[in-house]
Amino acid sequence: MATEEPAFTVVLGEDSFEVRDYPGLVAAEVSVSGTRDAAANAGFRLLAGYIFGGNTRRQSIAMTAPVVQERATGETIAMTAPVTQSGGAGAWVVRFMMPGKYTLDTLPTPNDARVRLVPLPPARYAVVRFSGLARPAEVERRTTTLRAFIERRGLRALGPPSLARYNPPWTPWFMRRNEVWIPIERV
Predict the structure, then answer these.
(1) What is the C-alpha to C-alpha distance for residues 155 and 86, in angstroms, rounded to an integer?
(2) How many whole angstroms separate alpha carbon 70 and alpha carbon 164?
(3) What is the pTM of this model?
(4) Is the predicted pLDDT of residue 158 greater than 60, yes or no?
(5) Which of 48, 140, 150, 178 sits in a 20 to 30 Å window from 110, CA-based?
(6) Residue 169, SS3?
(7) CATH architecture of the region 1-23+121-187
(8) Where are the beta strands (DSSP E) in the chain?
(9) In angstroms, rounded to a whole number, what is the distance separating the alpha carbons of residues 68 and 56?
């Protein structure tokens, strides 16, 4: 059975780059601190608790892909849950998109107050796809190439980059699918 992914429309494609339009979505998210990997693991566990029944209805919600992670902004840093830090630490938002059949009104309330249900407005993203492990140096390299693509195409970035990971941890490294997303202005 395939894992649901949010629908999008490709506006522009060039090699491993795309410009995509996403509709409004609903996400469950948490704010955590630590290194990128420590925060991703801690955030994943909190969100998995919610979708595996840690909610007011004890309802299971299907897992979707990707798991999205970005540096927290000033407003989310205050809500950060502590994580053991091992260098390169920061505050992060980790997000699961909810299956398309749900709205904010139909989702059960999380039992853990650190899990927030948030509406995401329709948005346009510049995206670069890559396979393998999403190590910090590789994510930084891909972010730099995506920023160069945005500049070369005369596009305007509207926010920070996000890392989108599509595979469970047991997926062999060479089969993993990752993306860096940067929100851009609609022209």
Answers:
(1) 36
(2) 9
(3) 0.89
(4) yes
(5) 178
(6) coil
(7) 2-Layer Sandwich (3.30)
(8) 9-14, 17-22, 25-34, 67-71, 90-97, 116-120, 123-131, 162-165, 177-184
(9) 24
Bridge partner residues of 131 (DSSP): 177
Fold observed for domain 25-120: Multidrug-efflux Transporter 1 Regulator Bmrr; Chain A (3.20.80)
- Determine contact, residues 135/125, Cβ cutoff 8 Å: no
The angle at the Cα of 10, spanning 135 to 97, to the nearest 5 degrees, equals 55
Cα torsion at 33, 39, 44, 50 (round to 10°)? -10
**Structural domain boundaries in the chain:** 1-23+121-187, 25-120
Q: What is the tens place of the pLDDT at every residue in 26-45? A: 999 999 999 999 999 999 99
Going edge to edge, which strands form the sheet with 9-14? 9-14, 17-22, 123-131, 177-184, 162-165, 67-71, 90-97, 25-34, 116-120
The per-residue pLDDT for 24 is 97
Task: Show the tokens assigned to 117.
Answer: 């249900």
Strands 9-14 and 25-34, by their bridges, are unpaired
Cis amide bond preceding 66, omega within 30: yes
Q: Specify whether the CB–CB gap between 34 and 42 falls below 8 A.
A: yes
Read off the pLDDT of residues 59-97 as tens digits, 9 standing for 90 and up.
999 999 999 999 997 544 333 334 333 335 789 999 999
CA atoms within 13 A on the CB side of 133: 9
